[in-house]
Amino acid sequence: MTFTQEDARADLVAAPGSEWWRTAVIYQIYPRSFADASGDGLGDLPGVTAHLDDLKDLGVDAIWLSPFQRSPQKDAGYDVADYRDVDPIFGSLGDFDAMLAAAHERGIRVIVDLVPNHSSDQHVWFQEALKAAPGSPERARYIFRDGTGENGELPPNTWESVFGGGMWKRVTEADGTPGQWYLHIFDESQPDFDWTNDEVRAEFRDVLRFWLDRGVDGFRVDVAHGLIKAEGLPDFTPDPDGGSMGGDAEEVPYWGQPGVHDVWREWHEVLAAYDGDRALCAEAWLPTVEQTALWVRPDEMHQAFNFHYLETEWDATALRDVITESLRAYGEVGAPSTWVLSNHDVVRHASRLALTAENPQGAGIGPNSPGKPDPVKGLSRARAATSLMLALPGSSYLYQGEELGLPEVIDLPDDARQDPTWFRTNGERYGRDGCRVPIPWTADAPAYGFNDTGASWLPQPAEWADLARDAQVDDPSSTLTLYRSLLAERRVRDLGAGELEWLDGFGDDVVAFRNGSLLVIANLGDDAVELPAGEVLLASGPLDGDRLPTDTTVWIAAA
Ligand code: NOJ
Questions:
Q1: Within this chain, do residues 225 and 135 fall inside the same structural domain, yes or no?
Q2: What mean pLDDT do residues 135-161 have?
Q3: Residue 163 Cα: closest atom of ligand 1
Q4: For residue 6, is pLDDT > 80?
Q5: Could you read off the pLDDT of 475-534 as tens digits, one per residue?
């Protein structure tokens, strides 16, 4: 009997309220750094296919792939030139279809990244816009404006790019004269679309259908808080302490504008016309959990990344508060809360949780950063933090390599760095390369098994041999074994669909809760804590007899 996409789909339809994305553990693949079948030093789609069994063995429910569509790679693929094709560095549409079918055969769902806020400056529409006249329909797909100053020599407003520098670039008109300016929230190679334009909206509904027709299970939607800009584009200067996504700032005229909700309602309809519970997940950096929950009202998106959880310090009170608030706010709109600790934009949590200085999102860490992490403390905290996260009800996101306990790579040579942030801030911010280094599979192989040629688009540290998958897979105390055990136990006890009940009596520095048949106790304080009676199912680090040491989480079977 031949297994078809339709067979896979039939298994994917769930009763309302039990859709897969409510409880799934979703593993983020950053394709250029996951596995490189072609050997050119950049990961690719056949590399993903070749490792699906490893992901099945890890125990994840779904994968999310960062962009692999056609792109000049000015922002590692978040600058898309053709939304309906695979970039040759990652393979072909045929490779994508093969990967999708192989994932579905293993019961792994697949979410793809969609980047609607901006395209690449190489996108055919932007090239047409450059050639067309001010006021033309071609320009109206993007945000072109006349400059200010006597001769239009100053940008239209004061906005600053997330990656550093201004948010506007002046073009040269077809007749060779200095002309209008276009808006780019990110790099100047990433012009923003005008989402009040019906042609832009129709185009993206069609792009959604293109990938849905191929069989994807959903989309991670890039910069979901940025599509609509405030009427009149009023001046705004970001708070330097507000984080690079402006996450702490209120009233930012290009973030969180109410007009985006109409877009999500349109997209919800597009997905609803397909069978099999397809999902939209918002990448939305917003000031509060409450505000983010508006993105996942019943007729909008299905999930939003919980960046408030990711940004919470290693502090028991702060964690209890953000968990309580998340379950309340998302619960009130009928959406699951999601949980996440690492991704391709932030310092890996095995380093971040031991930083002793402020680290605004997107800044990264490098040789001259203050407050560099103690790697041993970082790894203990990361293991404890993940053990806590995977016991929470809802859906969790993992970032490739965290299951190996990978730390941020701090000492990348300056001339290896590629993040536009590094260039646009003249090296003031290191950017995100340190969390994007190709991951190690085999200790004793070229590029640690990332490929078989030894090429790697970012250099891998010598210490990573010990962290390679094959060095961890049979070691009962390895981080990989911990992740596999957590995911297996989570599945058996259906923790994603459970309910959280706080447990008292452990002191302020402890996070303790019950989820169904499981007690979870995480000790964030300096002193060891007495454990309650019960069978210890797993622990993130060694126990001290019947005491729980600092920076350790334990799962205990409830009596
Ligand atoms: C958010 C993505 O996660 C990040 O990597 C990218 O640089 C920006 N959006 C711009 O697309």
A1: no
A2: 97
A3: 7
A4: no
A5: 999 999 999 999 999 999 999 999 999 999 999 999 999 999 999 999 999 999 999 999
**pTM of the full predicted structure?**
0.96
Residue 534 sits in a domain whose CATH number is 2.60.40.1180
CA distance 240 to 520: 38
Q: Are both 364 and 459 inside the same structural domain?
A: yes
Same domain, 368 and 463: yes
Residue 109: the pLDDT is 98
| 222 CA distance to ligand 1 middle (Å) | 6
What would the two tokens of residue 203 be?
């185009």
The total number of structural domains that make up the chain? 3
Distance of CA 337 from the midpoint of ligand 1 (Å): 22
Q: Same structural domain for residues 279 and 335?
A: yes
Residue 190 lies in a domain: no
Please give the distance, rounded to the nearest whole angstrom, from the Cα atom of residue 114 to the centre of ligand 1.
Answer: 11
Mark whether 434 and 506 lie in a shared domain. no
Query: How far apart (Å, rounded) are the C-alpha atoms in residues 39 and 47?
Result: 10
Pairing of strands 500-502, 109-114: unpaired
Q: Which of 328, 263, 339 is nearest to 301 (CA)?
A: 263
Ligand 1 pocket residues where CB is under 6 Å: 75, 78, 115, 186, 222-223, 283, 344-345
- Whether residues 357 and 275 share a domain: the answer is yes
pLDDT grade for 17, boundaries at 50, 70 and 90: confident
Q: Could you tell me if 205 and 110 lie in one domain?
A: yes
Distance in Å, CA 507 to ligand 1 centroid: 39
**Domain ranges, residue 504:** 500-557
What pLDDT does residue 15 have?
73
For a substitution probing ligand 1, which of 185, 186, 189 has the most ligand atoms within 8 Å of its CB?
Answer: 186
pLDDT at 292 over 50: yes
pLDDT confidence band for 4 (50 / 70 / 90)? very low
Instruction: Establish if 15 belongs to a structural domain.
Output: yes
Distance from the CA of 223 to the center of ligand 1, in angstroms? 7
Q: Whose CA is nearest to atom 3 of ligand 1?
A: 345
Nearest to 186 by CA among 118, 124, 130, 139: 118
Pocket test for ligand 1, best of 29, 223, 254, 344 (most atoms within 8 A of CB): 223
In a domain? residue 491: no
Residue 495 falls inside a structural domain: no
Phi, psi of 27 (to 5 degrees): -100, 120
| Residue range 323-352, pLDDT digits in tens | 999 999 999 999 999 999 999 999 999 999
Residues in the chain: 559
Q: Ligand 1, from 78, 83, 163, 192: best to mutate by most atoms within 8 Å of Cβ?
A: 78
Question: Which parts of 71-119 are beta strand (E)?
Answer: 82-86, 109-114
Q: Which residue has the tokens 């994807």?
A: 216
Cα 277–chain centre separation: 21
Clarify whether residues 398 and 534 are in a common domain.
Answer: no
What is the pLDDT averaged over residues 25-34?
A: 98
User: In terms of Cα–Cα distance, which of 213, 232, 218 is closest to 267?
Assistant: 218
Residue 163 alpha carbon to ligand 1 centre in Å: 10
